[in-house]
Queue: 2 jobs
Job 1
Amino acid sequence: MSPAIRCVALSKGFGAVTALDALTLDVAAGSIVGYLGANGAGKTTTIRLLLGLLRPDAGRVELLAGDPTRPEARRRVGYLPGELRLDDRCTGGELLDYWGRLRGGVDAAYRDRLVERFQLDPGRSVRHLSSGNRRKVGLVGAFMARPQVLVLDEPTNGLDPLVQAEFLALLQEVRGDGATVFLSSHVLSEVQRVADRVAVLRRGRLVHESTVDALRLVARQPFDVHFDGPAPAAALAAVPGLEELRVEGHHGTWVVTGSLQPLLAVLAAHPVRTLSAPEPDLESAVLALYGGRGTP
Ligand code: ATP
């Protein structure tokens, strides 16, 4: 099956700024990818290229196996922009009706269920809505046509925790129904909760792409081990990715980045009395990728 989204060596610059530099990335149909990066990393530029709202300088995008600007692709995509501009003269309900008509009609019962889930008052003028409530109008608009692909630019910005939880539950439901989700975010914890894969962008370049579980390979895993005899200092020091080794008598502490296999081979060859390896701090591992200190 072809990927729902394919970017091949996609590049875009604005004057002297390289916003996106040769991005190659596939998003499998029926999966959720979390797209992480610092401010200005190029997330929104990627999204605008994916949707055909910007033309790339080089490379290409395939959305649902073809050009993103073709009408049948547009009809099958739900989009939540990062900066939502809503017509202040309308109510939320009027905007949803209007967007529904543009799409040639949507299932009104499903739209109403979404309005209820997000506790949106469709009768209120958009002018009087808080930024979180405006965002909910955009979210209902993105989901209501049951799109095959959802492209969401920092969707949880400004949402309260209850609505965030409802949104993440909805994402899992639509993926269960076969939808593909491209989710740009600053928040690792929400990506960890819902995404199948994670891609990290730094200054326009893809610096990491893996399953969410494999993110652990870029995290620094601490160890604290008591051996039954003297700690094998020389063998430990030779383990690839092992740093901050401190050995005293039978006791050793260190951190490991990357595969644990070489370390486990050393531990298997020396009698271990107790071992503690607390959860690695993924948040700082990803922040290091953002800032260029990690191991992409
Ligand atoms: P944020 O998290 O702050 O939304 P982002 O990862 O979405 O950031 P982009 O908005 O894609 O980042 O911007 C990437 C780079 O391209 C930035 O340096 C930005 O200033 C620049 N850029 C984006 N759009 C334009 C534009 N229309 N004209 C000029 N420069 C632009």
Job 2
Amino acid sequence: MIKKFVYGNPIETGAVVKPVEASADPIQYLTELEMNGKLIFNYEMENDDVVYGLGEANGGLNKRGAVYRSFCSDEPNQTEDKQSLYGAHNFIVISGMINVGFFIDCASEVRFDIGFTSQNMLNIHLGCPDFTVYIIEGRNAYDIVKQFRELIGRSYIAPMWAFGFQQSRWSYMNEDEVRTVVKKHRDAGIPLDAVYLDIDYMDGYKDFTISEERFPNFSEFVSEMKQEGVRLVPIIDAGVKIEDGYELFEEGRQYQLFCKKGDGTDFVAGVWPGKTHFPDFMNSGARMWFGSKYKSLIDSGIEGFWNDMNEPAMFYTEDGVNEAKEYLQNFDFNTNDPGKFFELKDKLTSLSNRMKDYESFFHNMDGRIVRHDQVHNLYGAYMTRAASEAFDNIVPDKRMLLFSRASYIGSHRWGGIWTGDNQSWWSHLKLNIKMMPSLNMCGYLYSGADLGGFGCNCTRELMLRWLAFGIFTPLMRDHSAVGTRRQELYEFGDTEDFKNIISVRYSLIPYLYSEYMKACLSNDMLFKPLAFEYPNDNFACTIEDQLVLGESVMLAPVYEPNAVGRYVYLPEDMLLVIFKSSSVRKYQIMKKGMHYIPVAANEVPLFIRRNKLLPLCRTSQCTDEMDTSMFEIIAFTDDNIEYNLYEDDGISKDYDNPDNMVQFAITDVDGVMGAVSNKTIVKLSLF
Ligand code: MIG
């Protein structure tokens, strides 16, 4: 049951696709309070209510006890106290005696104080007077999430090759460096499907250009890599370099497709290329224009992109620099007041991403002029939209890989997201684990973190443990920043362990892809909190570091340094499978309850739920070489069971074809339990 309440004159954000009549009744559940002309909603929580949601946000699965601010932010220093990350996902579910979900469809800043100021008080602070609230009632949290997902529409569907292992670095500087990366993976037998091109593939950081010097024969190089089973994935930044004669700049200026200042001039911000203009993604013409530019790279054979810096991130603006200059000129360097020196320091370190700058430029939303801060959270989402809608024209029958850094609910239909600049910290592995279900609640199914961490130096052990979780996330990409320790897997000494871990992923791809596709097609989640599957088990409901993955699997990753294993709670009897490699495994049936399981850093543990089965294919070096004619089945049952494997060609869009379902069954054949399927079953391990 979904009710809609409209405040003021909201802009159409595009978040919701299912028509809902606006209610004329007063709002339910939430009480309104006005402070300094701004609206706050209050909701009194019960002591043991759990609050889920908020997608890409700090903290745990249960969001209680902290403040979260939806304001897409370039935040590479994601310490615990940070209230904003790159996405703005204003959907929460309160789960307890009363179950209710709130979606605050508001494109400007929204702050959620979830029992921080006052333990049982939820306050939602609205940054602007024009927005829509959706209130969703349901049987439980999971039911509310599913209704919400239906409201916001089917998630973006990635091509199957994007389930392979992807290697990235800021930046691989030229053809030869990329060749070396590919060769070293192949030589070590570490499977690989994609290599990323970060900003240095461009000519002077100009979007849709390619450096002649570094990549002189781009399309030949793209096909050479494809021969190796490797796709190249270039980055596209939001800012367009100001440079006479640069086509994108000239066109954008001439046709008025950039964001403007109040005085009608094009807004200028400093980013990687130096001074840039921001395309006005809020304008349909600008979206169409910018989107059409992806064609040249697609014509060169490119099949995937990542959109970056689209919060939009700004290193500085002319206004900010001028203010700082003036401040310096007037600064009394002889002062004996230490406070003044702190002020001076702040002045110079706060030139980036200033609120004042976000308030100084405007969008032309097809006739409606809107100040940026009022629609800030839509900017990156609409860049994704520009690309996605363009792909529908350029390659209508083909799936492209596309994911973004900034996002707003609605953009889950146009692309995936990665979770931005994390660090090589154990706490960020844990954050990655806890964030996946929240992202799924908000529609982001094709997502993942920079495995191993983007900033800082990763250790071998952290990399192994991170991969042992990362091999389950749809986007599985090792990415790291310039200046950090090299993070390609072969850089950590003995490559055998890495080969083994990534090989496990490749044998799991059919299951992962199947569960991912089913979740996309039925507005469901791939990663679920235990609470969603075992709602009557009070202890299971409090667990945040174990997740249910699709229909058959429970995960319990190790995320502590120097650990030799971990405690796991089983809400029912399960089969523990420890992968030493894709083919070497240990099995153990475990009873419902608490257990300590030893897991070495080069092993991958997973649990198969009771009366479920897991299909595995033979591992391969890339998805193009995957053989899904033969399967091995691991089943934990003494009963007849079935599993429907979703399978398609992985690249076209014929999703809803019933032929895409392949059935596996464990059944009694003449008094013996056996596996039955149209596929060849090479081995059955029955427990
Ligand atoms: O200011 O393109 O999050 O993945 O490697 C940094 C360089 C810009 C931020 C992205 C990161 C990427 C980096 N970019």
